[in-house]
Each structure stands twice: as structure tokens, then as C-alpha cells.
Amino acid sequence: MASSKLLRVVLQTSVRRSYCSPPGQPSAVFRPRRALLFVAGNDEKKIRKVPTLDVDCVVLDCEDAVALSKKDEARTTVRRMLEEVDFGRTECAVRINSVDSGLADDDLSAILQAKKLPSAILLPKVESVEEMQTFAASLNDAVAGIESNPTFDLFALLESAKGLMNLQPILQETVSLSDMSPFRLAALCFGSEDFAADIGASRTSDATELIYARQMVVLAAKAFGLQAFDYVSVDYKDTESLRRQAEEGARFGFTGKSVIHPFQVPIVQQAFSPSPERVVWARGLIQAFQQHQQEGKGSFEYEGKMIYKPGLLQAQNILQIAQSAGL
Ligand code: COA
Ligand code: MG
Fold this sequence. Notes:
The chain is an alpha/beta fold and 327 residues long. It contains 13 helices and 10 strands. α3 links the parallel β2 and β3.
């Protein structure tokens, strides 16, 4: 193979391995979701505040932020807010109730009647292959009458030992269900509070009790070409701990983090954005990589460190995030 063609193959293979779209699914434009701001679906005042918060993604919640007696109110409010509020650059996701709760069908059928639909659905407490099959059937039913043939990005929330232990078959089944259903599996989220309660762990501020589970979520997400969202830091007034936790999540390989309060948005979005110096480093590395490939060198020295193909992947990830976040 001619060397320029070979170089193209090396660069393209690397891009395909970065988190963009799951194997077997159509590739989609990478959408930055550095912070996902949760807001209770029945809290109209807070929802109307979202467009002022410059957040990448809002999650209008019908699940645990909403009391059982307010579920109907949350569905109708979410539907109305989708139609009435101009969220600007902020992507809109809706968290429905879990399949197990028996409330998910009512959530879907009420919310998907909105004239403006959310672009993503967050499904909580994912634990089994059967649940994903039920969810796919429910979503197919809910979109049956919608003329625009919508497709939703799906965020699967893992928050139990069972969900994590079943992760691989769940993801395989979800990817294959998406061929026949109006969703594209886009991300895995980790739910720390339910997870800690499920395994009987005590939550600490350095979150050592969560490390193994968080790394499982990142590994599975990357194996399936998905984004990965780290846990909510519930101690939202402690901004220093939040910064530390968000920077750690970014180092682990998460691509974003769930948040619950406007204070948290800029801190988290900054932690998940590459710095200008890092972007310059990445651009230079890619250029140097191309040059050394042409000279027949697979590894080389760049800014004092040995670089080979994994360095190229890291640099491409950084540029992808920077470009899609408009940095
Ligand atoms: N989304 C949008 N706006 C929010 C918000 C959110 N999640 N949380 C707070 N705000 C707004 C408040 O309405 C207030 O607006 P104002 O200044 O215009 O009156 C401002 O931000 C400051 O809020 P503050 O008074 O500090 O907080 P609060 O007492 O109103 O609310 C919580 C505190 C924790 C109840 C609230 O942040 C919340 O409901 N978060 C989401 C909880 C959730 O979804 N949990 C489940 C998912 S894990
Ligand atoms: Mg939960």
C-alpha cells in the first residue's frame, strides 16, 4: 500500500475507535454533553431558568426528583415546557421512570405527544436484557402515530450491582434492538447514590467505594463507542470537592457528569473541556505523528515524551471534544 494511503488508514482507524457511535449503528455527529443538569419535571420555574444557564444538556426528570403523587403533573409539565421553552443551545433529554416501575409507558405516551420532542431519553435503573426489550417495544408503540418518524438518543443509567454485572449482554441487545427501534444508544450514565445503597456502601467525598463501578461503566461505554457520564455530586455547595471530582471523572475517561444545581454547571463544563494548551499540544502531536509515519517511524519523541499510536488516539479525542464544544 502506498504510504499516504496507509497513513489515511491509520488515522481513520483511530477516529473510528474514539467514542462516537456504537458498533453497527449509524455514525452520528459527536455532541458535547459535559454537564447534564437534572431538574424535576414538575418544577416549571426551574425549567424556565435553564436557557440562562449555558448548560450542554438538561434532563427533565419524571423519575426520582418527582414525588409519586406528582407523576402526572410532571408528565404534562414536561410536555408543555418542551413546546413553550426555547432552550437555545441546550439539548433536551427526558428521564422517564424505569421499566420496572410500571410508569414508563405512561411517561412515553404523554411526553411524546409534544409538538417539540426531546432529542434524548434517559432510562434509569437498567438491569436486564428483558427490560431493554420492553423499553424498545414501548417506544415503538409511543412513536407509532408520530408523522416525523423521530429517533432519540438513548442514555442508559446504571445504578445497581445487577445492572453492572449484566452490562455486556444488555449493551449487545440494546445495540441490536436499535436496528428496529427509534433510538440510538448514545451514552451510559452512572448513578452513585442508588448504587451505593444497592451494595450497602457508605458514600465518602473521595468516592473510593465507587471506583470499580465507575471504571466498569467507562470501559463498557468505550467498548461500545458510547459517551460516559459520571455521578452527581450531591454536596452541591462544596464547589472545591466538585472540581476535584469532576477533574477525576475526566481523567477516568468519562465525557461528562450529571449535575443538580446551576452552581455546578460551569465547574463541570470546564473540567470536561480541554484547556487551550492541551488543544495546541494535540494539534502538534497529530502533525508530528503524520510526519513520523511518512518517515516510517511508529514511535517518536514529542515534547519530552515517547509517543506512539495511543498518543494519537488521545490527541484525536481532545480535538473532537474541543471542536464539538466550539472551543
Ligand atoms: N435547574 C434549574 N434551575 C435551578 C436548579 C436546577 N436543577 N436548581 C436550582 N435552580 C435555580 C433556583 O430556582 C434558583 O433560581 P432563582 O435564583 O431564579 O430563584 C437558583 O437556581 C438558585 O437555587 P437555590 O436557591 O440555591 O436552590 P433551591 O433551593 O431552589 O434548589 C435543589 C436546590 C437541590 C432542590 C435544586 O437544585 C434541585 O431541585 N435540583 C435538581 C434535583 C434533582 O433533579 N434530583 C434528581 C436527579 S439526581
Ligand atoms: Mg437513581
